[in-house]
């Protein structure tokens, strides 16, 4: 794993949270992107080498809607940058981690992504991210 690529934060109201994080980080978001396959709208801020990804739900079955209903707003996942996501999926599967998708899927901000079940990683939802090949 190379670095923390982003922290995902589940929010109820993306516009209100955007204002809060613009003030907190003293910078404007650089991208808003809807990823309908995940049921989310994302908003990205750069913070040094990493990013903050604000996520709001686009429908009631979204993982973000379920998370907020159960746990309230807050840190939803930690995403690590990897060079070769398929190799990492293989490695982690053979180490006994439960992958939520065993083939990479399309994420936000030009990434291929895969998730580990939070029960595999001490209650933390982990996302693997690889830059999409050009
Ligand atoms: C925009 C794309 C992308 C990017 O490019 O960055 C994203 O970040 S998308 C982010 C949204 N997508 C996902 O989260 C996909 C992966 N998540 C899932 O598949 C599911 O959310 C889940 C983790 C498998 C949970 O789903 P489910 O079992 O249907 O939900 P429950 O509400 O029943 O929860 C079961 C159990 O798990 C706990 N839980 C749920 N979410 C989290 C979480 N984010 N972190 C830690 N724990 C989580 C939940 O509290 C339940 O625990 P118990 O009550 O103790 O059983
Ligand atoms: Co993410």
Give a structural overview.
- This protein is of the alpha+beta class and 134 residues long.
- The protein is built from three helices and eight strands.
- It has an eight-stranded mixed β-sheet with strand order 2-3-4-1-5-8-7-6.
- Strand 6 (105-106) and strand 7 (111-116) form a beta hairpin.
- The structure holds ligand LP2KCY5N and cobalt (II) ion (CO).
- Residues 6, 8, 53, 77, 79, 127 line the site of cobalt (II) ion.
Average the pLDDT over all residues and give the rounded result: 97
Rg, Cα atoms, Å = 14 Å
Associated small molecules: ligand LP2KCY5N, cobalt (II) ion
Strand order of the largest sheet: 2-3-4-1-5-8-7-6
Please report the distance between the alpha carbons of the first and last residues: 21 Å
Helix fraction bin: 10-25%
Number of strands: 8
Q: Report the order of strands and helices.
A: EHEEEHEHEEE
The number of helical elements comes to 3
The stretches of 5 or more residues where confidence is low (pLDDT under 50) are: none
Strand content: 35-45%
Shape: globular
* Computed structural class: alpha+beta
Could you describe the largest sheet, including whether it forms a barrel? 8 strands, mixed
Give short descriptive properties of this protein.
8-stranded mixed sheet; metal-binding; VOC_core; Glyas_Bleomycin-R_OHBP_Dase; binds cobalt (II) ion; 134 residues; Methylmalonyl-CoA epimerase; alpha+beta; binds ligand LP2KCY5N; 3 helices; 23% helix; MMCE/EMCE_epimerase
Summarize the model shown.
The chain is 23% helix and 38% strand. The protein contains 3 helices and 8 strands. The protein starts with a strand and ends with a strand.
